[in-house]
TrEMBL record:
The modification 4-aspartylphosphate is found at residue 54. Gene3D superfamilies: 3.40.50.2300. Keywords: DNA-binding, Phosphoprotein. This is Response regulator transcription factor. PROSITE patterns: HTH_LUXR_2 (PS50043), RESPONSE_REGULATORY (PS50110). It comes from Zemynaea arenosa. InterPro entries: CheY-like_superfamily, Sig_transdc_resp-reg_C-effctor, Sig_transdc_resp-reg_receiver, Tscrpt_reg_LuxR_C, WalR-like.
Length: 201
């Protein structure tokens, strides 16, 4: 049996995905999580073979989860299942050690086959994304720039961001300024939109 943990913040989708996978004789959904931090805890305790996660989730994104699993040398192979067909996300996912990247509109049998492939040591990437990924531009943002820009995009002020990431307000403004400059944006709102559309957040 291939032991799977699912991480998805939309309850109905989480239930539907679990029910679909449980129809497969060789797949066993051993745990479900509503955010990235819950998923990380489940991976620490249950040590599933595969973790299926969305990208955008509360508390910890799917990409941050993949990075945390790699940093802790946990054995679970990570697969992203998302609505976001953005080449920037795919590149960052591969850099984080993700083994599979599928879109949520993929047929159920394709998802099951991808899980088996990843479990066996292969990769499973949505073909339309794989092609687009290598023609897209490089992500110019550093991790800190990405972090503060994401928070700015949520409407937080420089002071609020500074408290959340434990930096001075001046340093936060510098990171935002760098991100705005790298993206040739007029302001932080436009920079956030441009980075989000490219999948760099």
């Amino acid at each position: 049996m291939i032991r799977i943990v699912l991480a998805e913040d939309q309850t109905m989708l989480l239930g539907a995905l679990a029910a679909l996978l449980r129809l497969e004789e060789d797949l066993d959904v051993v745990g479900t999580a509503r955010n990235g931090k819950e998923a990380l805890e489940l991976c620490r305790t249950l040590r599933p073979d595969v973790i299926l996660t969305d990208i955008e989730m509360p508390l910890m994104t799917g990409l941050e989860l993949a990075g945390a699993l790699a940093a802790e040398a946990l054995p679970s192979k990570v697969m992203i299942v998302t609505t976001f067909a953005r080449s920037g996300y795919l590149r960052r996912a591969l850099q984080a050690g993700v083994r599979g990247y599928l879109l949520k509109d993929a047929p159920a049998e394709a998802l099951a086959a991808a899980i088996r492939s990843v479990h066996a040591g292969g990769r499973a990437i949505a073909p339309e994304l794989a092609l687009e990924s290598w023609s897209a531009g490089e992500d110019p943002l550093s991790e800190r720039e990405r972090q503060v820009l994401r928070l700015a995009g949520e409407g937080k002020t420089s002071g609020e961001i500074a408290k959340l990431v434990h930096l001075s307000e001046g340093t936060v403004r510098n990171y935002l300024s760098e991100a705005i400059s790298k993206l040739n944006a007029a302001n932080r709102v436009e920079a956030f939109r441009l980075a989000r559309d490219q999948g760099w957040l």
